[in-house]
C-alpha cells in the first residue's frame, strides 16, 4: 500500500509531495507525535525531549536530503493518526499518576514539536523535488520543479 501517482493529477502529486516533504524534513519529530506521550510514562521528560531533538538533528545531518521513501512517508501518515489515541490516554494517565512535568509535556506535545523542530531549518522544496522524482517526475523548463524556474521565478 502506497501513494499511486498515476491515480492522481499532477497538482495532487505536487501537493502530496509538498506535504510529505514538510514531514520528511523533521521526520523523527513528526513520528514522535504518537510515541513521545507514551514514552513519558516510563522515561523522564528530559530524556524524551532530548532524545527527540538528537534524533531530529541526526536525521537532518545524515538522512533527510540523501534519500526519500514514498512508501515510508505514505505509511507514516497513517501511523501518526494514532496520536489521537495515545496522546490523550497517556496525558490522562500521567495526570492521574501525579506525574506533573510529564503530563504537561505530554499535553502540549503537539505544540512543543514546533519548537523542537525549529532548528535545523529545512529546505522543503529540495525534499519535494526528491519526492516528485521518486514518483517518476523529472524537472523541465515548464515544470514547477525546474531548478531554473525557481532561480528565475
Task: Write a structural description.
- This protein has 153 residues and is mainly alpha-helical.
- The protein has one domain.
- Helices cover 71% and strands 0% of the residues.
- Helix 1 crosses helix 8 and helix 2 runs antiparallel to helix 6.
- The C terminus is likely disordered.
Short description:
The chain has helices at 10-25, 27-42, 45-62, 70-80, 83-96, 100-107, 109-116, 124-134, 147-152. It is mainly alpha-helical and 153 residues long.
Secondary structure elements and pairings:
Elements: H1 10-25, H2 27-42, H3 45-62, H4 70-80, H5 83-96, H6 100-107, H7 109-116, H8 124-134, H9 147-152
Q: Measured on Cα atoms, how large is the radius of gyration?
A: 18 Å
Share in helix: over 70%
**Proportion of beta-strand residues:** under 5%
* Topology, number of strands: 0
Biggest sheet details: none
Q: Could you spell the SSE succession in H and E letters? A: HHHHHHHHH
The total tally of domains equals 1
Poorly predicted residue ranges = 146-153
Overview features:
153 residues; mainly alpha; 9 helices; 71% helix; 0% strand; disordered C terminus
Amino acid at each position: 500500500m502506497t501513494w499511486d501517482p498515476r491515480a492522481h493529477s499532477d497538482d495532487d502529486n505536487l501537493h502530496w509531495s509538498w506535504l510529505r516533504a514538510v514531514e520528511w524534513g523533521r521526520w523523527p519529530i513528526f513520528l514522535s507525535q504518537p510515541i513521545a506521550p507514551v514514552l513519558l510514562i516510563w522515561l523522564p521528560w528530559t530524556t524524551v525531549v532530548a532524545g527527540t531533538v538528537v534524533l531530529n538533528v541526526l536525521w537532518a545531518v545524515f538522512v533527510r536530503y540523501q534519500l526519500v521513501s514514498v512508501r515510508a512517508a505514505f505509511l507514516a501518515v497513517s501511523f501518526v493518526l494514532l496520536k489521537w489515541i495515545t496522546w490523550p490516554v497517556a496525558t490522562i494517565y500521567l495526570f492521574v499518576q501525579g506525574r506533573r512535568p510529564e503530563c504537561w509535556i505530554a499535553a502540549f506535545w503537539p505544540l512543543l514539536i514546533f519548537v523542537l523542530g525549529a532548528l535545523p531549518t529545512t529546505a522543503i522544496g529540495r525534499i519535494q523535488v526528491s519526492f516528485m522524482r521518486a514518483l517518476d517526475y523529472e524537472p523541465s523548463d515548464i515544470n514547477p520543479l525546474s531548478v531554473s524556474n525557481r532561480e528565475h521565478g
